[in-house]
Amino acid sequence: MNKEYVKELIKQGKRMDGRSLEEYRNIVVEYGISPKNAEGSARVKIGETEVVCGIKFEVGTPFPDKPDEGTIMVNAELSPLSSPDFESGPPGIESIELARVVDRGIRESKAIDFKSLCIKAGEKVWMVFIDIYPVNNAGNLFDAAALAALAALKDTKFPKYDEKEGKIVYDEKTKNELKLVELPVEVTVCKIKNTFFLDPTDEEEEAVDARLTVAVLEDGKLAALQKGGEDALTPEDIDRMIETAQKHSKIVRSKL
Fold it and tell me: Which of 7, 80, 126, 218 gets the highest tally of CB atoms within 10 A of its CB?
């Protein structure tokens, strides 16, 4: 679709699918979609955009400056099956940015009680791997992936750890849930010319001048920001985008 046509529609306050500028497509969250292959899992659909997330555990050595804290690692795999724009091979810029945005929201909000991941201070801690797999990209992967990660973390239970053998027994899950302190919902606000809108389709994303992904806590406080797009944002733009994200994060959060 012609970018200029999309830009002109947005300037007029219109969209191809008939939504208002600040209206999300239908959001669906499913928990526990892969109970045998992951310690936690979820599927999120925003319109036709679909993202699956799985949680796995490993035992590792803590960082020297945080001897009693575990950590997280976020990976996003953008497959050509989800979009013809993605290519096979090593992670590209898009997958690295997607993983970084999700990681930043969780890490900066201290969503996980990292001290609860300690097995033995200075020696062994749990490492939480958050793997994100877009199944279909119809726009707004940032919000969908962040929501899928939260849902998967909520679904997570620790596997059994055999201290004598020093290994994880993945086939035996415990009843111990991952301790979540915060739920940082992410909302991406897009800008075309002087018009702001939410939940872009893939066609609208092609025409976006700038975007700001905002991680918002339940009390409305900010946990993280990630700017994208080629155009600059003024302080006034940022203030307005943050206010919009704070307002609509309540709607997104309700889907959890």
Answer: 126
CA distance 205 to 154: 30
Write down the pTM of the prediction. Answer: 0.94
**Fold of the domain spanning 3-254:** Ribosomal Protein S5; domain 2 (3.30.230)
Q: Take residue 188 and report the two structure tokens written for it.
A: 């991406």
Beta bridge partners of 36: none
- For 111-135, b/e burial (b = at least 16 CB within 10 A) is bbebeebbeeeeebbbbbbbbbbbe
The pair of structure tokens assigned to 140 is 């707004």
Domain ranges of the chain: 3-254
User: What are the pLDDT digits (tens) for 186-215?
Assistant: 999 999 999 999 999 999 999 999 999 999
Task: Answer left, alpha or beta for residue 171, where phi above 0 means left and psi between -120 and 50 means alpha.
Answer: alpha
The three-class DSSP label of residue 111 is coil
Written as six digits, the tokens of 89 are 């091979």
